[in-house]
């Protein structure tokens, strides 16, 4: 009977069993965890902790996507039409070019997609687990059943976990249960038939910790989790398309429709005017082939992938492709101070206690008293340092150079080590029994430790909050009277004026059975931390100013600290800083026009809560700004989601913040945000450049054929020749343009209007202008070759073909930026452009002088006069483009922009 009862218990779900039975079932000691050897064995047995819904995009799906395109459909129809009228050579050529183009597109997109998937692995989730009695941070994919996982506020749960410890633990389970209110968790088992929302002893994969800390044992991973069960039928996630890709797809569809209409009209006009039917059919095929920018989707994919890789090299991981387009339109950056504008290398600089004022001499690694002598570790100083070391969850490494956890807690532990007070020894003497996690409402945290027959409650937090809980009220005996509290607040402000970040320390002693609370606190003093500004931030802020981007500091720090750092970094000139405190944001809707204008003009927001960050984002957006907002906490998630660009901090940032963000900074540096904005602008500029290049080339081909048909000239280009041009002179230079690293002045231009289309009216004018120049040079060479040089048939077509081919190649140098020089610019500095021009020139010469290829294309090698005509006519559009650029430079002095990009 006992064995039968035990078997039934072992088979029960983990949430219905006591924690010790679950631990025994998973064969793990919670204080030691699994060994690395056992973890590897279980990983081999259970598989990686991933969901099939996030499987990589299959190569077959990418190939199918290449074939499912209006471009492919139209070219296939052209091949079928040619075959139907017995033009087998043309039909075969169109099919061959179509296959080549499809293969180029397939392999390019495959590489780009795999690159993007590899980039997203940089932002993979992690978990803190205990293995071999050591706390380790491991990739979520290698978490296995039996792992002991430690969790705290802001963590995303990476597996199904049975809790064995829970301290004020609340979890957002809305992704699974739909409940909007966080659920309170405990270690107590629940009924075996409890529904998902009632399983309070469990944490499920994909949910998020909103408050408190906990520890549990993994009971299911991957597809065996509750989240996995809901996605079992999903084999492959839908591919994500960016707004850019959707705009390009829409542009392609519009071009196909326009092509069909133009082709039909010109063919009808030709037949009506008595032109040969077969000639009109051939011209229609040529027109349809000429107008299609076959390389457009390929180059767009490559431009996005290459841009994302460049961002990754600057420690920026793009979580959502939509961010790539929005980055270039950013007008306001709301940035945190600590770790972003500063180095987040906290050191204790000053300890201002009720018993005296102490400073840290970094050079001699000594604590000095207010007289400048080495301080004695008396009772008040020792008590304050003990409270600072005990009140926290961070873990300092044995060397002291690094650690896991809050930088200020690590700084307090290093300070304690200097005084000979090691955290491990203090915890041995005073074991921790309770913890009150930091809360943005109270702005305090506390830990409770057994000390003899009492509990020592160690508290740290914002000075005003700790002092408020330590102030005399009524007959209660407190250390701090109201007038003394005001004096300590002035001292905190004085420390902040020095650019220090300030925390207050307090303690209380309560009965062992009492519940710790922020009551009857004995105020100990203030701690000032030095966090030096990053050396590159001042230049990055100056870059933003030149780029027309406002940088606003939004911090929870003291106003004086924020003001001092802001003026040091050049956010504002000394004495001119407009600073708004968080309490002024509590009634934004009720603000008058003058107060609202002052808030919008502020350079610094201090003592701001995460909820007020959200209101600030809404305020800027209502004023028409495109907002980038940084954040790292669980409560920052709403602001990150609401912002046009949510930027999560990758080092101290919580998993919840990362989930809500559009991009993640792996180094938390403000300069990385600026680099991402620069890259976003470059990607958009490159896309616009190659669009103008491709469309002007293709329109020139359409206009050359159409005008020749209308005025009765010989057909200057054959369908096979046009296909050859599109495959050689269009795609390769366009590829090169997509790899460009941008003009030097990309951050000296104002932000782009986010509602601005890929090609606005100015860009369409340039497409038409460049198309007309290419058309004029080609038809000019055709007329000169026919009427002056006396060329006919294939010899005449060869001259017009080569003129247009080389003119399109040289035309790539017209794609420079609007503020760049004529000869030194992003295009001429791009080595891939020169490689593309050289390679295409060699291929064109091969097409003329290699008999098999020349025969297939119906080309004849020109004589000296013919080559002279080709060179002069093909260089003419480039020279005219340079003249137009020079005129544009003069017009820009009068604020008139004629830029193609």
What's the topology here?
Elements: H1 2-11, H2 19-25, H3 36-46, H4 59-67, H5 70-84, H6 88-121, E1 126-131, E2 134-139, E3 148-152, E4 160-172, H7 174-177, E5 183-184, E6 202-203, E7 208-220, H8 226-230, H9 243-272, H10 277-291, H11 296-313, E8 316-318, H12 322-327, E9 332-335, E10 347-353, E11 356-361, E12 366-368, H13 379-390, E13 395-396, E14 403-404, H14 407-418, H15 423-429, E15 432-439, E16 444-451, E17 454-461, H16 463-468, H17 482-497, E18 501-511, E19 522-530, H18 537-546, E20 550-554, H19 559-569, E21 579-581, H20 593-601, E22 604-606, H21 610-622, E23 627-631, H22 637-642, E24 645-649, H23 655-660, E25 663-665, H24 670-711, H25 719-738, H26 761-787, H27 793-811, H28 831-849, H29 851-857, H30 864-892
Parallel strand pairs: 9-20, 9-23, 20-22, 21-22, 23-24, 24-25
Antiparallel strand pairs: 1-2, 1-3, 3-7, 4-5, 4-6, 4-7, 8-25, 10-11, 10-19, 11-12, 13-14, 15-16, 16-17, 17-18, 18-19
Helix pairs in contact: 4-6, 5-6, 5-10, 6-11, 6-25, 9-10, 9-11, 10-24, 10-25, 11-24, 11-25, 13-14, 17-19, 24-25, 24-26, 25-27, 25-28, 26-27, 26-30, 27-28, 27-30, 28-29
Kindly describe this structure.
- This protein is an alpha+beta fold.
- It has four domains: 1-149 and 173-191 and 219-239, Calcium-transporting ATPase, cytoplasmic transduction domain A (Distorted Sandwich), CATH 2.70.150.10; 244-311 and 682-892, Calcium-transporting ATPase, transmembrane domain (Up-down Bundle), CATH 1.20.1110.10; 316-342 and 533-668, HAD superfamily/HAD-like (Rossmann fold, 3-Layer(aba) Sandwich), CATH 3.40.50; 347-530, Calcium-transporting ATPase, cytoplasmic domain N, CATH 3.40.1110.10.
- Helix content is 48%, strand content 16%.
- The strands form four sheets. Strands 8-25-24-23-9-20-22-21 form an eight-stranded mixed sheet, sandwiched between helices.
- Strand 13 (395-396) and strand 14 (403-404) form a beta hairpin.
- Helix 26 runs antiparallel to helix 27 (793-811), helix 26 (761-787) runs antiparallel to helix 30 and helix 27 runs parallel beside helix 30.
- Residues 1-9, 233-240, 473-478 and 894-899 have low confidence and may be disordered.
């Amino acid at each position: 009977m006992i064995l039968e009862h035990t078997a039934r218990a072992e088979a029960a779900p983990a949430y219905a069993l006591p924690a010790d039975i679950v631990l025994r079932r998973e064969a793990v000691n919670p204080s030691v965890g699994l060994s690395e050897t056992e973890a590897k064995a279980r990983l081999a047995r259970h598989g990686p902790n991933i969901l099939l819904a996030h499987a990589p995009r299959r190569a077959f799906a990418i190939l199918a996507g290449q074939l499912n395109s209006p471009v492919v459909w139209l070219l296939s129809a052209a091949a079928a039409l040619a075959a139907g009228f017995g033009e087998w050579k043309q039909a075969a050529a169109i099919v061959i070019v179509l296959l080549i183009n499809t293969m180029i597109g397939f392999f390019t997109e495959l590489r780009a997609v795999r690159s993007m998937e590899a980039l997203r692995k940089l932002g993979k989730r992690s978990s803190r687990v205990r293995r071999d009695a050591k706390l380790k941070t491991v990739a979520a994919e290698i978490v296995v059943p039996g792992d002991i996982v430690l969790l705290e506020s802001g963590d995303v749960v990476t597996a199904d976990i049975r809790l064995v410890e829970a301290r004020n633990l609340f979890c957002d389970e809305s992704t699974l249960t739909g409940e909007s209110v966080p659920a309170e968790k405990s270690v107590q088992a629940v009924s075996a038939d409890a529904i998902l929302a009632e399983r309070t002893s469990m944490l499920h994969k994909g949910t998020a910790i909103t408050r408190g800390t906990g520890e549990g044992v993994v009971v299911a991973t991957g597809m065996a989790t509750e989240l996995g069960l809901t996605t079992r039928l999903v084999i492959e996630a839908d591919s994500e398309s960016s707004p850019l890709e959707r705009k390009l797809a829409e542009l392609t569809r519009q071009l196909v429709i326009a092509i069909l209409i133009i082709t039909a009209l010109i063919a009808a006009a030709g037949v009506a005017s008595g032109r040969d039917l077969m000639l009109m059919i051939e011209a229609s095929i040529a027109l349809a082939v000429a107008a299609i920018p076959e390389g457009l989707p390929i180059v767009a994919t490559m431009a996005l992938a290459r841009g994302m890789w460049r961002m990754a090299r600057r420690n920026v991981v793009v979580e959502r492709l939509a961010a790539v387009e929005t980055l270039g339109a950013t007008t306001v950056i709301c940035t945190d101070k600590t770790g972003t504008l500063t180095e987040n290398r906290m050191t204790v600089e000053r300890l201002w206690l009720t018993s005296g004022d102490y400073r840290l001499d970094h050079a001699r690694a000594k604590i000095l008293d207010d007289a400048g002598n080495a301080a004695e570790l008396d009772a008040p100083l020792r008590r304050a340092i003990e409270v600072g070391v005990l009140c926290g969850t961070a873990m300092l490494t044995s060397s002291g150079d690094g650690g896991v956890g809050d930088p200020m807690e690590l700084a307090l532990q290093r300070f304690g080590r200097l005084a000979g007070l090691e955290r491990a020894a203090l915890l041995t003497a005073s074991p921790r029994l309770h913890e009150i996690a930091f809360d943005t409402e109270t702005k305090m945290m506390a830990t409770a430790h057994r000390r003899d027959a009492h509990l020592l409650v160690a508290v740290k937090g914002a000075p005003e909050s700790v002092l408020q809980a330590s102030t005399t009220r009524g007959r209660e005996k407190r250390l701090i009277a109201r007038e003394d509290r005001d004096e300590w607040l002035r001292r905190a402000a004085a420390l902040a004026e020095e650019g220090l970040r300030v925390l207050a320390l307090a303690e209380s002693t309560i009965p062992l059975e009492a519940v710790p609370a922020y009551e009857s606190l004995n105020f100990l003093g203030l701690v000032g931390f030095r966090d030096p500004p990053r050396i590159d931030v001042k230049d990055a802020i100056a870059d933003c100013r030149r780029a027309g981007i406002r940088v606003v500091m939004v911090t929870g720090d003291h106003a004086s600290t924020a003001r001092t750092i802001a003026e040091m970094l050049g956010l504002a000139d000394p004495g001119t800083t407009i600073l708004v405190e968080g309490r002024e944001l509590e009634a934004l809707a009720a603000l008058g026009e003058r107060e609202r204008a002052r808030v919008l003009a502020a350079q610094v927001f201090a003592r701001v809560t995460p909820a007020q960050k959200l209101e600030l984002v809404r305020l800027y957006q209502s004023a028409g700004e495109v907002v980038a907002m940084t954040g790292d906490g669980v409560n920052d998630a709403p602001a990150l989601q609401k912002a046009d660009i949510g930027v999560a901090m990758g080092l101290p940032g919580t998993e919840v913040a990362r989930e809500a963000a559009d991009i993640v900074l792996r180094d938390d540096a403000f300069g990385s945000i600026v680099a991402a904005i620069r890259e976003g602008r470059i990607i958009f500029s490159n896309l616009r450049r190659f669009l103008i290049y491709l469309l002007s080339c293709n329109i020139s081909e359409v206009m050359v054929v159409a005008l020749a048909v209308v005025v009765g000239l010989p057909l200057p280009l054959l369908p096979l020749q046009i296909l050859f041009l599109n495959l050689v002179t269009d795609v390769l230079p366009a590829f090169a343009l997509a790899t460009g690293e941008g003009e030097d002045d990309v951050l000296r231009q104002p932000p782009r209007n986010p509602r601005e289309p890929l090609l606005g009216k100015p860009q369409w004018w340039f497409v038409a202008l460049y198309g007309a120049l290419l058309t004029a040079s080609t038809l000019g060479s055709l007329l000169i070759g026919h009427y002056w040089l006396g060329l006919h048939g294939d010899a005449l077509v060869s001259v017009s073909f080569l003129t247009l081919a080389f003119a399109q190649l040289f035309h790539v140098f017209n794609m420079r930026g609007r503020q760049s020089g004529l000869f030194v610019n992003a295009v001429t500095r791009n080595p891939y452009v020169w490689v593309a021009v050289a390679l295409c020139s060699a291929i064109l010469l091969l097409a003329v002088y290699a008999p098999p290829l020349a025969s297939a294309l119906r080309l004849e090698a020109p004589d000296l006069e013919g080559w002279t005509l080709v060179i002069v006519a093909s260089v003419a559009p480039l020279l005219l483009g340079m003249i137009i650029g020079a005129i544009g430079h003069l017009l820009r002095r009068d604020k008139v922009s004629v830029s193609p990009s």
